[in-house]
Structures are given as C-alpha cells and as structure tokens.
Amino acid sequence: MEIIQKVLGEGRHVLSEYESKLLLAQYGIPVTREIVVEDETDLISAARDIGYPLVLKGCSSEISHKTETNIIRLDIRTDGEATTAFREIKANMNGRPGGVLVQEMVRGQRELMAGLTRDPQFGPCVMFGLGGIFTEILKDVSFRLAPLKHLDALDMMQEIKGHKILEAVRGMEPADTDMLAQVLIRLGDIGVENDPIKEIDINPLIIRGGKPVAVDALVVLGESEAS
Question: Of the candidates 50, 5, 6, 3, which has an alpha carbon nearest to the alpha carbon of residue 24?
Fold first, then answer.
C-alpha cells in the first residue's frame, strides 16, 4: 500500500496513530474523525470542524505510549481549553517530530481490543479481547490464523472470558457482532495482503451505540522481502 511504502521510504518502521488509522479506514474499519494540526493557527478551525467535546493527542511515530508521556487531553469543550491543551502537549513532546491530533470524543463504557501479529512460523494471526487500561493485567484474548471467515470471528468473540460484555447489559444495547466480525476479518486481510506489517494494535476499540470504533491504533512494520 502507498502509505506503507511512504513510511518505509522514510526509513521508519512505526506508523503514527493518524497514519495507522488511515490504513485501517482504507479497509473499511471504523475509526474516529480526526485532523492533524502542526501549529495553533489551524487548531481552532480543526476543533470546530470536528466539534466539541474533543480529545487532543500528540501524534508522532516516535511515541507509542501517549499516557506515559502525558500527551493526551480529554473532554476539551472550548477554544481556550483546546489552545491550552495544544501548548501543553507540544511541550511534552520534547521536540519530537509530529503534530497534534484533534479527535472526536468517543463515549462508550465498553472497551475492547483487536489486532494482528505476524508469527514467524504461522504468519498473520488476528487477536481479539478486552481492552482499555487493564489489557495487560487481564490478558483475556483469543487468536485465529488469517484469513478469517465470519464464523471464525464470531467464535473468537465467544472464547474470551468476558464475552458477556458484548450482550445487552446495564441498559446498554448489545454490541453489533456482525460489525465486530468485519473488523476482525479485515484485520486478517490487511495482514495477508501486506507482508511488511508485523503488528497492528487497536486499543481501545470502543462500542458506541452498539457499533465498534477504533479510538487508538498502532501499526508496526518489520523486515520482509516486500519491504
């Protein structure tokens, strides 16, 4: 794909969040509405295009863990808050290349994760599980070799211990498992069709109005004959 060749041509092996979501969107995976801005002159225009409330994030291929580097600001509601957040984020990026991502605030109480890893022996494997800040603690995930069929994706959802989170619970409508299945199927397709991709991480994949939205994403490239 063009975006992968561009990144490799620049000598990079990690896509920024914005680049990662562009790739996902090209395969029909739902992602947040967002605009990257480089300076304050474009900030307010972008903020009003997306609409408050907003999330602002530092967006650099050199920063994988945004929370640890303090470059995320949530629930921004005014131009003044946006300007203050922009300045704080740029300062905390410590001169690293990249802009600031102006992103819609996605509200949803259920956070999942989905991804892809390329096993040296078996090839691309799709992953699904519970997401959010407790991902590494709970380790509630399931795997399948790509490519996936619809039934494979549905089975993956039922294999995690927390599968009931996808049902109607506490007044929330059930998750659209067909849409979730398509996300998993398309992740597998990305892995099958793009040899340079070593890893994809979508976390969180938030359920909003029953439908999944990729709120954060990371794509890592590896060495391959195609690269």
Answer: 3
Cα separation values, 54 from 57, 146, 173, 189, 210, Å: 10, 35, 24, 31, 21
- pLDDT tens digits, the chain, 227 residues: what are they? 899 999 999 999 999 999 999 999 999 999 999 999 999 999 999 999 999 999 999 998 887 666 668 999 999 999 999 999 999 999 999 888 889 999 999 999 899 999 999 999 999 999 999 997 767 777 899 999 999 999 999 999 999 999 999 999 888 899 999 999 999 999 999 999 999 999 999 999 999 999 999 999 999 999 644 33
List of domains in the chain: 2-30+107-221 (3.30.470.20), 34-104 (3.30.1490.20)
pTM, two decimal places? 0.92
- The three-state (H, E, C) secondary structure of the chain, written as one string: CHHHHHHHHCCCCECCHHHHHHHHHHCCCCECCEEEECCHHHHHHHHHHHCCCEEEEEECCCCCCCCCCCCEEEEECCHHHHHHHHHHHHHHCCCCCCEEEEEECCCCCEEEEEEEEEECCCEEEEEEEECHHHHHHHCCEEEEECCCCHHHHHHHHHHCCCHHHHCCECCECCCCHHHHHHHHHHHHHHHHHCCCEEEEEEEEEEEECCEEEECCEEEEECCCCCC
